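PROTEIN SPECIFICATION:
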Amino acid sequence: MVKLFDKWECENIEVKDLGIAKYIKLQPVMVPRSGGKHEKKQFYKSRLHIVERLMNKLFVSGHRGKKHKISSGNNIGKSFRMYKTVKEALEIIEQRTKKNPVEVLVRAIENAAPIEEVITFQKGGIFAREGVVTSPQRRVDLVLKHLAQGTYQKSFKSKKSAAQCLADEIILTHNNDSKTFAISEKMRREKEASGAR
C-alpha cells in the first residue's frame, strides 16, 4: 500500500464537508511533488494531493498588507526545504494529537473554509459591496493561503521553526480555535459578508 511520505495512509480519510470534498484529493502518493504537471490547465490544481497544495502555498504565501516583503518570494525553488518543513510539521501533529496528521489537516481545512465573502462592483457612479457564496475551489485555496500566512506570521522573528508554527496553526485550526489566523480570517470574511447583505 502506498503511504504519504511512506508513513501515513490517506485512502481511508473521509471529507465530511461535501461542498469541498471534490477539491480535496487524497489519492495515494509517496512523494507529494508533481513538478508542475498540471500547470498549464486551469483549475487542474484540484487534482494535486492536498499536502502538495499546502507545500505550494508555502512557497509564496501571498500578499498580507505591508508585510508583503516578508511573505512573498522567499522560498521560490526551495522544494526540499518545503518538503522537510511539511513532513516535520506532520510528524509534530502526529506526536501531539496521536491521530493521522493528514486527517487533522483535512478537518482543519473543513473548519476554516469560508462560506461567504464580499465582492465590490461599480453600479453607476458608486462602488457597491455585496455578500456572495464562495466557490468550493476558492474555499480550499483561501484556507491553504491563510494557513501559510499564519505560519509566516508566527515564525517570523521567532525562536520557533516554521514546522512548529505550521503544526501549531493546523492543530489549533483543527480544534476550531479563534486565535489562529485561518479561523479569524474566516470569521472576518463571513462577518463582512453578512453586513453587506
In short: The first helix runs from residue 50 to 59.
